[in-house]
Amino acid sequence: MKNKRLLEIFLELAHIDSISGNEKGVSLYIQNFLTNLGLAPYTDNSEQKTGSNTGNVICKINGGGDFLLSSHMDTARSTAGLKPQFLEDRITSDGTTVLGVDNRAGIAVILCATEYIIKNKIDSQPYTIVFPVCEETTLFGSRYMEIDREIKMGFVFDSYMRTGKFIASSYGAAGYKVIIKGKASHSGIAPEAGINAISIAVKALSNIKIGRIDENTNANVGLLKGGTAVNVVPDYVEIEGEVRSVYKEKVLEIIEETKEQFVKAAEEFGGNVEFVWVWDFMPFKLKEDSPVFQKVKDVITKSGLTPEEKLSAGGSDANSYNGNGIEAVNLGIGAQNPHSNDEFILYEDFENAFKIAIELIKK
Ligand SMILES: [Zn+2]
Description:
The chain has helices spanning about 5-15, 25-35, 45-50, 100-120, 140-145, 195-205, 250-270, 290-300, 315-325, 345-360, and strands at about 40-45, 55-60, 65-70, 85, 90, 125-130, 155-160, 165-170, 170-180, 185, 210-215, 215-225, 230-235, 235-245, 270-280, 285, 310, 325-330, 345. The protein is an alpha+beta fold. The chain has two domains: about 5-170 and about 285-360, Aminopeptidase (3-Layer(aba) Sandwich), CATH 3.40.630.10; about 170-280, Alpha-Beta Plaits, CATH 3.30.70.360. Strands 1, 2, 3, 6, 7, 8, 16, 17 and 18 form a nine-stranded mixed β-sheet that branches. α4 (about 100-120) packs across α10, α6 (about 195-205) packs antiparallel against α7 and α8 packs across α10 (about 345-360). The structure holds zinc ion (ZN). Zinc ion binds near residues 102, 103 and 158.
């Protein structure tokens, strides 16, 4: 790999063990790195909401501007004992741990590009760099990030896809939990005195949509528990499910329909229903004429690559930013086979991701 400095920063970062909720080591490394460049990084106060041992790291360059570059600090699995291997075209681990490329490669790209611009006195845009916690578990770092209202666009360096590809639309997921309350009674002596919560559940479940609902929407019921004994009319059932769609409205519609079926069934049998749901991550679909879409195509082209728009089935920090009113894309950096012991990155993708970062921030 030609860019020795990029590799050096990556290796330093990858050796810091920092799984979700324990990002302090990486947080301190980043803050120290940026302070040495004469910048003023700081952490926000998101710990109470994220449960991490550090806040998100934020640093404004030239006043902060209206766009951010983002890369999460946690890894899904530990990098302790990492022994990186340098093959002809790629970096891997020795197969006993993850490489940590998701997402230390993204952090290295952002830090190295910022250092390069400053040390070579290249005119840069005003921009903000952010390093969220807890991406792999809850996306709470990005969701609860305390960030300036001036920020309108986001560029997340966190996709396993090859460089040139970018995620401009993504499924969202909402999880729900239903608690059905009936009335217990001896099923042999006084069955008519009971209200069977399982009957309510079965009735509702037979009427709700499950599976692939349409091209862009899926729903699932994944957990069901209830009842106490064969001779007791069950008074309690708990059900958990989820709805996924590219369209926010579609998720809301299915959630509403699902809730209605449970309420209807409970009324029919004389029981009660509690229905709660929450966004695990919000869907987004960026318009082709939006500034972020235009900008990402432009910088990818200037980096010598062919831009290719992609849809993602999973969530990333880009979902949080879009949910918070910052139009954001997730860029392919080629961090392949994420979370497995076969994680790797091609030197080519690593250096291309660096080029994309430079094109984003230089004037
Ligand atoms: Zn990641």
